[in-house]
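Hi team,

Filling in the usual template for the complex we talked about on Friday. All components are listed, including any nucleic acid strands or ligand strings, so the model treats them as one assembly.

SUBMITTER: L.P.
PURPOSE: interface mapping
COMPONENTS: two
RESIDUES: 920
SEQUENCES:
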Amino acid sequence: MTQKSFVGNRGEKVRSDCYMELEITASGGIQIELKSKVSALYGEDILSLMKDIFAFCQVKNARLFIEDSGALPYVLSARLEAALEKILNTGREYLLPMLPENNYSSEKERFRFSRLYLPGNNPAMMINAGLHKPHGIILDLEDSVAFDKKHEARFLVRNALRQLNFYGVERMVRINQIPAGIEDLRFVIPHNVHLILVPKCESAMQVEEVEKEISRIKKESGIKRDVFLMPIIESALGIENAFTIARASRNIVGLAIGLEDYTADLGVQRTNDGMESLYARMRLVNACKAAGIQAIDSVFSDVGDMDALLSSARISKSMGFEGMGCIHPRQVEYIHKAFAPGEEETEKAQKIVDAFITASEKGLGVVSLGTKMIDAPVVKRAQKTIELAVKLGILSKDWRNGYGAK
Amino acid sequence: MIKNAAGRMVPETINGIQQIPYMGIGKFKPKGNKTASAIPSNSNFPDNGNKLVNSLKEALIKAGLKDGMTISTHHHFRNGDLVANQVFDIAHELGIKNLRWFPSASFPCHAHLIPYLEDGTIYSIEGSLNGPLGKFTSEGGMKGTGMLRSHGGRYQAIQDGEVKIDIAVIGAPTADAFGNANGLYGPSACGLLGFALADSQYADKVIVVTDNLVPFPCIPWQIQGNYVDYTVVVDKLGDPEKIVSGTTVVTKSPDRLLLAELTARFCDAAGIIKDGFSFQAGAGGTALSVALYFKSIMKEKGIKARFARGGSNKYLVEMLNEGLIDYILDGQTFDLDGVQSMAENPRHTWTSPFTSYNYHSKGNFADMVDVVILGATEVDTNFNANVVSHSDGYLLHGIGGWQNCLFSKTVIIPLPLFRDRIPVVRDEVTTLCGPGELIDVIVTERGIAINPLRKDLIEKTKDSGLPIKTITELKEEAEKICGKPSKPVFDDRIIAGIKWVDGTLIDVVRQLKK
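RESULT (copied from the run log):
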């Protein structure tokens, strides 16, 4: 019996990746043909890693061809493991060590202004992702991975979670649409993923299914920490069910909206000013606020137009969204700028909060600024702005020290 | 073999010529006089100033082309050059052997010459060995030994008599029949002809080749006809799209932009960006973006630079036109905006390796530049850098003005910490091109290392919030991600020498083991 499998990527533009052809043979031992741009420096390393994986999988006879464009060990090993598993399907995992610096946790209440999507089968984009300082990175197994690459992407994403340093950002994975996405979970849950994005979510039941599988894996692997969820609403039905979805699990930290699919579902064009999705966005924001979770806006797809991105992000913020997706690292900076409280907004909030504290100290029931009365909800909003500004380092914690003196 | 002052083993002779091992920075001070060409007489030249001959072939024959000669060309046509290839096509046709090609740089388009290296038309190349020529040479294909010099080192070698040019062939985008020439106008416009200056002054015979002949006078005369023996008109000097790009595009690579941003923030924190400062940033993706970050910092501060050293491009020209820079001192123009600005704006001036780079002179302006942003293929933990070979041992690039720029007041090299899997910070560079004592800062996306010699920079940036690390920390970080690299395996045979700016031998490159 001989079987062949093909994994990975090659081509002129492919970097930091490799392509492999594997054939399990009946005899002849392990034969490896390596074509690599780094063979002078890492040829021996690569061969010994490959041999180790063969030994781990108890494969004694195989022919392997590797075309390497400078893949790091986590990529090489993910590729070979995927190639072997395609044929052998043992379910045994060859795990490289977890970097100690990857063992940090996240929390439910944290900023999620920007989440950078990283195609799950493209290692070149993953390596420096954390350096661009998004609030989160999303290793994507869904739309950015071609159907015939879904299997190998799981190994790559798993290895990335263990071996790549994302420098403290929230570690997220977007699984495939339920039910297919359930199978993705065992590849990522044991490897300190902080948050799972559930795409094309239309019902609370889908969330429950994900939650059930996560609990099973957590129990099996003895994991105590929470795994947060963020369903993505991408259809008319999903929008109608937004509130029940938002309340489907205590681990849900927010809902995101996916406007490419939503507008397709409606049969309309997606535009920059977004009138066609106004209802959906407002409905989603309202559902999130009612459920006490974050509302996250869709991605902005023109990566060349930073001015349009900035104004789109400002509109998002004004509608009540607390973040949006990014598809290019350069978008991060602009999105942060848009969602952080502006100078004028912060100053106004400071005035209001200061007036409120002064009034309370004097025992006055009414807060006023100049001749204007300030209502309680206005105070509450100003307090939220101040809190945000302090957390982002725009304001110091003790900003009121000497504030009145100015 | 002798161990030079940088600890590298170098031979006593190359291609039969005695070599002086590198002695350290500023240590080698030659005595004697500069070289001179033979005294000509006007009586040997046409009274009417018309030096036109019918073809390049005729000019080469009249110039006395024969076996073993040294032929020079310039590289202002970059990867669009058709002149050098035509010269050696003719030499091959005439059955001439063992020529030494002495270009100011070579480009991938010169892969055309590989068959002539194989059949003995060309014996050796002294100039850069780029891309295919470098690969061919690294694998042992060239009969003689290559010699790599900086732009300033090339001028020095010519004026000192280290290299005697028999015939200089100067491609000129515009010229008159007397031989006056410039690079500003015509279908092959390349801006300037500075790299051919020494060739015109010191070669035995000088041929000016043009595809845009104008009646006398050709103004401005960047090359003076008084040095020229023959003029020739050809159909085409080069491929315009490859000479200068139609337009310069800023990189969209997020990783390069991050490097550029860190570099600019470092300069700002170190107090380098101040009113009246000067800078040089090349046309490479990262360097170009650094200039743009400089621009926004300068605008914010309301300051301007006294001069910028080009390689010019659209963005540098914009800064000049917006009054952010008083002068551009240009060595080469990278796009059409650069060419046009040089032609029209007196504050955008052409330079030559003599004014900018020559080390055997009474000073040059490279020393006066406040900050220069350079590239490298590798650096090591002693801040030494390599620009000519890759970590796998292949010789693939020339030195350009890189060594000369090291004399700037602050030298910054932004680099990705690793390229694909190849770490750029090594224990020891594969080929030494620049001594670490002249290299001040290495900027990577994962941290910035400051040369311990620059206590002032360390002090100024310590509270900047920038990720300052030691060079050893950077090396370890790269190796943690990529693994510890092996070294390439070389044969004993030396395929090229690397000259320092003063003509001494700083290192050699060896043939790769098959």
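MY TAKE: Chain B has a mean pLDDT of 96. DSSP finds 15 helices and 30 strands in chain B.

Thanks, L.
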